[in-house]
# Entry
Amino acid sequence: MSSVNPGSPDKEPATEAQAAQTALGNTEQTESATTPKQPTPEGRPTLGRLFLDNLWAANTFTVTLLSLVLAMVVGAILMIVSDPEVLATYSYITARPTDALNASWTLVSEAYGNLFKGAVLDPDAVGFNAALSPISETLTYTAPLVFTGLSVALAFRGGLFNIGAQGQAIMGVILAALAGFLLPLPPGLHLLVAVLAGALGGAIWGFIPGILKARTGAHEVINTIMLNYVAVYFLTWIIVQNGVQDPNRADAISKTVDTSAQLPRLLGDGLRVHAGIILAVLATAAVAWLLNRSTLGFELRAVGANPDASRTAGISVTKTYILIMVFAGALAGLGGSQMVLGTTASALTPLVVAQIGFDGILVALLGRVKPWGVALAALLFGALQAGGNRMQSYSGISLELVTVLQALIVIFIAAPALVKAIFQLRAARAARLQTSLAKGW
Amino acid sequence: MEPGEIHALLGENGAGKSTLMNVLYGLYQPDEGEILVDDKPLKLRGPSDAIAAGIGMVHQHFMLVPVFTVAENIALGAEQVRGGVGGFLDRRRARREVADVSARYNLRVDPDAIVEDLPVGIQQRVEIVKALTRDVDLLILDEPTAVLTPQETEELLTVMRSLKAAGKSIVFITHKLGEVKAIADRITVIRRGKTVGTASPEASRDELAALMVGRSVRLTVDKKTAAPGRPVLEVAGLVVDDDRQVRAVDGVDLTVHAGEVLGVAGVQGNGQTELIEAIMGLRPALAGTVTLDGAQTHGWSTKKVLRAGVGYVPEDRSVDGLVKEFTVAENLVLDIYDRPPFGKGLALRPDAIATSAKERIEQFDVRTSSADAPVGTLSGGNQQKVIVARELSRPLKLLIAAQPTRGVDVGSIEFIHSQVIHERDAGTAVMVVSSELDEVIGLADRIAVMYRGRIIGIVGPDTPREEIGLLMAGITPDSGTTGTPAVTESAAPAPEGPGSEDKA
Amino acid sequence: MAVENVAVAPVDQGFWTRTRKVGAVLVALGLLGAVLFGALATDQQARFTLSEDSAGAALEINGTVGAILFGLVALAAGAAMLAGLPKRWFTLVLGVGLVGFLLSFLCWQVSAAPTGQNFMPLVNVLRGTFVLALPLIFGALAGVLCERSGVVNVAIEGQLLMGAFSGALFGSISGSVWVGLVAAAIGGAFISLLLAVFAIRYLVDQVVMGIVLNLLAVGVTGFLYERLMQTDAESYNSAPRFSNWEIPLLSDIPLLGPVLFRGNIFLYLGLLLVLVIHIALFRTRWGLRTRAVGEHPTAADTLGVKVLRLRYLNVVLAGVVAGIGGASYTLALYSFTKNMIGGKGFIALAALIFGRWSPTGALLAALFFGFADQLATYLSAINSTIPSQFLAMLPYLATILAVAGLVGRVRAPAADGKPYIKG
# Structure
């Protein structure tokens, strides 16, 4: 590990993730202990001991945590090298090393401090809204990511790599928005219809690569990538059509979704968190049930693991492929629909879904393609996003740093061997991404 | 190894023959020990060292790039180039080299043909030419006859003799005794990674077999005479293509009655796999009919066929039989997961699955640490038992078992065989397809011999092995032509596995 | 694999061979052209000028006549296919049919343009095609290098972006285009090296790695852009640019001269690279080994080819090519902006697939996609009723049709995307 930033102030966003990870049984029980070097969280001695023993083994949680740390170290370096003033102190580092270190420390700790304050808790905040605002923001960003993450994860379990969550989310947002401002329906029903329209849009966009895969064997990775862009152009086209475009605007923006079709806010008008996060939790539970407790999930997992044996056992592989993609698409479409039905925006614009589809891929990988893992990963990404906003406005650190952090975390967790080598972890099984899925085009 | 010698390396499947040769070819690194060439120890860091030392190898799975031409495949790794740094291929020279070697050893290959368009026998010839252009003195042939027809086998043996005459040494890895006796100068028998003896080709089959297996095994199955009932499966005029759209089943008629075992014998690759897959609805039938208990199954899905009371033990368990990542319990319900009591509507009933798994594991003596262990962690025999347990736990009208004991330990073989007979005695129609003649003879009440996509004859189980062997080589008693006895004897009736020669 | 084989419909039997199916499609297109485009076209002349504006020599045809005539050409080509054309004529007749349809379409569009704009300046359109195709050519070549050796390159976008960024940054700092060019190559190679290390050494799924690297490149360049280039564009985002080099004599050839021989270094380099990589891939030892490693690495290994080393080499070379492609933006046309590649890397991937993993195929596909892009610009300039967004979808839709086997068969290198593990 290189010089700077030994302990950035915010390891907390991960600790809650860790608690639940343990609950998921992802950590492994290994017997003997090497000398633990990690700071120890409090706990009863026996439990704490056990925890320590496990901590330095290369289990899923440790690898995830260390990946986060590594990513933040790289992020810190980027901050330092891109800050001319701080960089200037390094020109005389041999003469006065403290200057360089202090300047670096100030820059990095302030930035990451703001990241934490924006994502979890601002100790200086006064009042109900101010105190809850970071959490509210985090959950607002989390909700759509849960859906796109689940979309990718579900397909992954079925042996398909859905790069198309982005396009499916776009089709979802289009249909949801159209239903939201074109249909004159009573409140409640209107929302329901709009949400279902979003799911339908995504499902259609998932069906296409699904049926192409099933009927012609065309690789879903290629097709979903291509369909992402088709969806982007379709969105930019439809926004400017008569009846869709906001009549009072010359630029590419649609009418606004009726309030009767908007997801209700959970904590009053001052905070952005909306019912989407509840839907996200329900969706996670539903997908978890579907995967592990339903006949459909059984088929899906069987086909994902061994299509030949599944076919021999009478499971229709083609039908399953189509269903997987339809479900995955519907999930991504639901995620997309939140981008206009929630509080982030209420009208279509060319960038209305932001990156949620691509982020969904990262979220799914980070969550080890398990439903609750995905939900936690989405929470982490949502927190980074929310914190990143504050970091941008308070410390002047570009929001792009969050993208860098997210990408780096996933790179590191995708190669546990690398993290293990860097930190010299004891060997223990870390759930690695299934390389068996690497089947090329 | 002496120069100009054909040395056979004989051993059962999994005895360590291929591993040894891969070490010799530098693909694997030895853990200890050394290799001596001309009395000097040789350190092989990779295949290039082996090639430099004059060792060439024809792998069991051909090492040819399918989309390349023959000349390109042969040139790869030892390219003739001109133009210095650019490294432009000298194609004319490459082609000439192929032509030279082809002519010298009488191995005809077209240098410009695309490899994937060539039949297996010719591909193997390309492999041999590839090794010979590298000036090897020692050629390793790993199970070269496994995929060949009798004619192709005969041609291969001729080629080996001419290579021997040209002073090349050959290591010939096989488990087929007939071929060994036909061509080898010296025989080394390997069992469980150890040399257990050397023999001369004059040694009798029984001696060799005993050396190879290490015990005398008799695979007889205790059974009463069959009481055949109504016809359950009727196949008429069935025509099926294989994956490459080549005709694999070419007008097959057969009937399996309730309470009998129909054995289908034949050298692998004569359409048996495609026949079964067509019956199971896994592969489209281009013509003909399959009638199951009076109902035509045309257009039925596999699920429908299974639900109609057909049990199916596929020939390749790790590809088609089991989902290795799934637990034993899950694999035990792979085809009935959606039926009560395991599934109700959309919901799966894990308790019912677990309970049933426990029973099956006990009943079929599956050795596993728990029902929740991934099935991939079990031994081959126990994996096979999982499949058998799964298929036999439904009420069946018809059981189709393909290579039911391939790669399975002796104890499990006996168990599986007794289960099959038990099923027959319960009135199920049974069809057993096996390339192990002894298994077919032991289990079957009638034996159908398949050759080039047709049933070439149906005989009783008391028919002499030799006669069935001739049928497997495509020679019918009334056709009159005896062909080439030496080869048919060596190639065709040499099924794999333990004890295959004990009656010979 | 068995699954896919069963899914595939049985070989065309009887009447509806592939040629006949394509023929039927062409007939439909021809009818569309002759009837619909013919009806919509106006009586004005459709002029195709051989210059950059309405002046000079031109090919002219009456709009309605042209639309109907060329529609009939497509119709005839389709009919010939339906009638059972010999296989060797397939490509040629298909080409004639498609060009006929395109011309029918253009006759309608040009003749229906507002008066005074009833012309299509071919030099402009073709030059624009090449400009828009250039990054695609570099990107697709990077894909060829990578994927022919068995490593899936979804990171083209990131490689282009990193190349564009480092070209701009170091070009600005040094004030030299050449330093910028080298930096761009290194920038692209850096992303490639990450792909290689993680895919080859750590066996991370190559598609996953590609996607993540794209995001990483977007993040890093976006971050540094905001921190450095936005705050001090003078020092960090004002790279010098390559000027156009006019090749004497050749540049005077009508139509082709101004298009092909008055470009900048990137145009020449791009076309040269297509040629060089094509020859190298199919005529040299390196190429033979590369293809072998991409098709059947184990076979190559048994013959002493160093599989992993070759893959590393090719992946890094791919990054160099893509990096230079990225510089074709920042060292010739524009200054760097955030996410300026904007999906071109994925169109390049489409071009690679549509061009069937061959350098020349990739070139043609890139030109086709570039033309579609340029046509969209042209059509919106003449106030066409055709929404430009649908033309912009064309590359992606074409690729989907291609991989679905509706337009010939597309086969990736057999070992593409599969990590090689010895033993």
Summary: The interface with chain A takes residues 280, 282, 301-303, 305-307, 312, 314, 319-326, 330, 334-335, 337-338, 343, 345-348, 350 of chain B (CB under 8 Å). The longest helix of chain B spans residues 150-165. The domain at 219-309+395-504 of chain B is CATH 3.40.50.300 (Rossmann fold).
